[in-house]
Amino acid sequence: MMKRPHSLLRPNRRNFLAGTGAFAVGVSLMPYGALSAEDKLLNFYNWDTYIGETTLADFGSATGIEAKMDLFADNDELFAKLKEGNPGYDVIVPTNDFVERMIEAGMLENIDHALIPNMSNLEPAFQDANFDPGRAHSVPYMWGTIGVGYRPSKVEGVPASWKWLYDSDAYAGKIALLGDGLTVIGHALKYLGYSLNSTSAAEIKQAEELIIANKKNIKVFADDNGQDLLLSNEVDITQEWNGDILQVMEEDDDISYVVPTEGGVLWQDCLCMPKGAPHPENAHAFMNFVLDAEVGAVIADYIQYATPNGAAKAIMDESYTKNPAIFPTDETLAKCEPSIYIGEAANRLYDEAWTRIQAA
Amino acid sequence: MESWKTNRAVFWVLSLPGSFWLGFFFLTPLALIWILSFGEKTGIITIDITWTLENYIRALEPVYLEVVWKSIWISVLATVLCLALAYPMAFAISFAPGRWKPLLLMAVMLPFWINLLIRTYALIAVLRTRGYVNFTLEWFWEKADAVLTFIGLEQLELIGARFEPLPILYNNFAVIFGLVYVFMPFMVLPLYANIEKLDKSFLEASLDLGAGHWRTLRSVVVPLTMPGIVSGIILVFIPCLGSFLTPDLLGGTNAQMIGNVIERQFKAANDWPFGSALSFLLMYATFGALAIRSVLSGRQSGMEI
């Protein structure tokens, strides 16, 4: 009875050889295929709800390239996934400090500007970037701020200071901060008058003590759902990305957003091509497509983040272009600071402080 | 049954898929993590294996031990609650009429069919300030308030001037509640398997011989179902200790368990060697607990002989 599986499991030599032969043919043909013309495929790795509803399909009908999208939840996930080698993505969307970090780690491919004529649609301020000189590795996609989302009926006046979240019991038990150590500690530093990219151990310690002292008033470090907490009345005031608050402002009139006078993070998400991208030509075509005025307008209108695309902005209506929650005043912007890549040693200081804050 | 010695070839062939699985998907990654735990970060994505003990020394700093200690007591509490709830449940299923048993077992396992993340998000909707638990309590409060008003006692404000929602989300209570909810089937199933095998005539004998229900439970049922209790405890306690999703989503500002710290080392902190060392420390602690258990049970059976 046991004999049958026994003989079946013995490999048939001829089949085995045929199998390796097919494998060898496949291997030898692959480079030629890649050189002559790329497959009509694009693997896009993006944040959730961060592109127009039909953009990928439109790209397909315009170019014949089929775009597939995977989603990541935060930059850490994106970085961890690509760290051990690119699993096959052509275009990714890291935030500026991660663009910087990935450039330093040699994880990004150079971009050929000749293949992206729509770069000229970008506003002058976005043509270059200090985190990526000459835009050699990145194309700006969207930008925005981190500020305070709040419920005007429950909060006195406009809470235009980090004080109400970090150093006050006025809204005890009704406060949410973000769930990311760098951001939470960074804005405490900002409140204390330091740079949010401080690498000074003493300043970080001071920020840590400030947060620990106010922990009794904070309800939760919300991972990425501060807007939901605000919407469900779980909290009245929360630290959040502007676009997240804007999305719930559409559902509830009693929600508002302000960037505190001390300033907050000014961020920029970029389209980048990771090293080893299997379809570099398609990646360039996609970047060029996204930078098109009309395509950019459709995306920005849907996701409600600030676009760096001047040509797109020019054809959008005032409810978007004049919205202070999307485009803060120049005065506020002047106080904001982009987070930069602070280096691995400083990163460890922040992580250790964050562990202590949560354990306290 | 044939002994494996009589037909070695068959034995080896049959064990091949299992060994392959164990080797490639468990032992190899585990070995890699073990090696990594002796590494040193030299750049953003480069790690040198220098066989340093620095990661382990750092893992023994008070702040991490504090987090481990907190993870242990949260897990112990969740395991005890699981046992207290699952034991009568398993008993009820075992004593239920035959045609009910599959249905009841199915009810225990049904949550497994739904993704953990979705179940946890559903718990948020149940527990939050404007969630179903508080809606229900509010309804009862309103009815009670109406009754008090009707009999003219509303001025005394016996139940407060207005309904105060219970703060049952974003604290340790919510974390333990979530863990008990998620891991309950792991406790019920081994207990049920054990109680099902229990010869019910022992219970009758105990009762006939004059022992009360409580005494029967303590001296007959519990000792006889001890193997089920122990495997239930192991199956619940160990995954509780390493959990990070539940404290992350349901916990408050101090919900951090050791699983969260480890997760962060592999993501935000980008310190894989330290994360690996923490993981192994946790594993050694678990092995230690299992070793103590086997030593204790060995001594116990020794005494019985």
Textual characterization of the structure:
With 360 residues, chain A is α/β, with parallel strands linked by helices. Chain A has two domains: 41-143 and 267-328, Periplasmic binding protein-like II (D-Maltodextrin-Binding Protein, domain 2, 3-Layer(aba) Sandwich); 145-266 and 336-359, Periplasmic binding protein-like II (D-Maltodextrin-Binding Protein, domain 2, 3-Layer(aba) Sandwich). Helix content of chain A is 43%, strand content 15%. Chain B has a domain at 56-129 and 167-304: MetI-like (MetI-like fold, Orthogonal Bundle). Chain B has helices at residues 8-36, 54-59, 62-95, 101-109, 116-127, 132-150, 172-197, 200-208, 213-224, 226-241, 245-250, 258-266, 272-304, and strands spanning 39-41, 47-49. Chain B has a two-stranded antiparallel sheet with strand order 1-2. Chains A and B meet through α1, α4, β6 and α16 of A and α1, α3 and α12 of B.
Write the layout of secondary structure elements.
The complex is a heterodimer of chains A (360) and B (305).
Chain A: H1 3-9, H2 13-36, E1 41-47, H3 55-63, E2 66-72, H4 75-83, E3 91-92, H5 96-104, E4 138-150, H6 163-166, E5 175-178, H7 181-191, H8 201-214, E6 218-222, H9 226-231, E7 237-241, H10 242-249, E8 256-258, E9 266-272, H11 280-290, H12 293-303, H13 310-314, H14 318-321, H15 330-335, H16 344-359
Parallel strand pairs in A: 1-2, 1-3, 5-6, 5-7
Antiparallel strand pairs in A: 4-7, 4-8, 4-9
Helix pairs in contact in A: 7-8, 8-16
Chain B: H1 8-36, E1 39-41, E2 47-49, H2 54-59, H3 62-95, H4 101-109, H5 116-127, H6 132-150, H7 172-197, H8 200-208, H9 213-224, H10 226-241, H11 245-250, H12 258-266, H13 272-304
Antiparallel strand pairs in B: 1-2
